[in-house]
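We read letters as residues; the fold follows as tokens. A sample entry reads:
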Amino acid sequence: MYGQGYTSYFTGNQSDKVTSPEGGICLMGGATEDDNAMRWFLQRAGGGDVLVLRASGADGYNDYMYTTLGVSLNSVETIVCSSAAASNNPYVLQKIRQAEAIWFAGGDQWKYISYWQNTAVDSLINQAIQERNIAVGGTSAGMAIMGGYRFSARNGTVTSASALANPFDAKVTVDSQVFLDNRFLRDVITDTHFDNPDRSGRLAVFLARIFNDYGAKARAIACDEYTAVCIDTSGVARVYGGAPLYDDNAWFIQVNCEIPEPAPESCSPGQSLTWNLNGKALNVCRIRGEATGAGIFNLNNWKSETGGNWFNWSVSQGSLNSITGSAPECIVVTDEASETGAFSVYPNPAGDYLTIRQNGVESGEMNVTFSDLHGRIISSIRINGEETQVETGLLEPGLYMLGITAGKRSIHTKIIKHR
């Protein structure tokens, strides 16, 4: 089928089949797809219709998904978008409404962003994730667009050497606008082809720029080329790959939560990056990918794992360093605040004031931040006392993330500010 701005390749049953998809996210490292991870992804469609979106190429996924992997599906359709015009095409939009799973192929992530961001395409995909629990996934450029933060490649790709030498190089383009909205990836930037030694330095720069530009302690998920990370709707990530025969890894990277003031020492235009903090600026967990997906990382607390090895990364005058580390000791809770937890927060929704109480421990200084859902800090204050009122009257009505840290205890929870 040919239409304005797109070409369609269809395999399977033409009649739409409505199923109950299981949701989830599949992040693929950029080379040949891992069959076991792809089976995981396709099974999440519940036997329904899979849509492949891409901006180049042809129908290479159709037979592979529909026949080769042995997962029962109603159909697989690939739509190749040749221009932004497809983002308003009724046929394309209808196929998004009918899909139980959507896969983004490799290619050029800037085309995906420039074609689909702030259009009916991303709006319908996000609606499908939230309301119909569809599964989404992608490889290479398709993985690169999955996070709440993205390296957009608007000005082309960037090497680690260039980024580390100047974090404000014109090619260091980190996009923070809402695109694909997945709960567990809202504060995450992704990277692929990570067994290429040139990738890790630039990813550290991306995290530094996010901290510098948005005040956000972002996280990162990176995959070696033949490795995949499959995230279920509970936030448990399984790592698939060819280990132990091959050295296939996934990397879970975060700003060190044990450091009270973790800002880079030097992140300025025209100067090499320094983000050292005694060699512990970033906590990194490497998990080998096996056929069974036995390696696990919990995205609810970014700490619990099975089969992981921990490192600390740091950057000194543009040079990336890695040393053996350990899991962070910080207690980070991402569920709603509870009266039985370390902190109580009320009322929620809040009016002009919010009360914060420390439970069951000796009271001390608390660092309190209000952020938008993208992780960008709107305000930050330090308070003391067992129970304290925080003024919220100046916040615009809406939904915020409240972060509270006291010593090694912290919580991140949603609050609503009403009028």
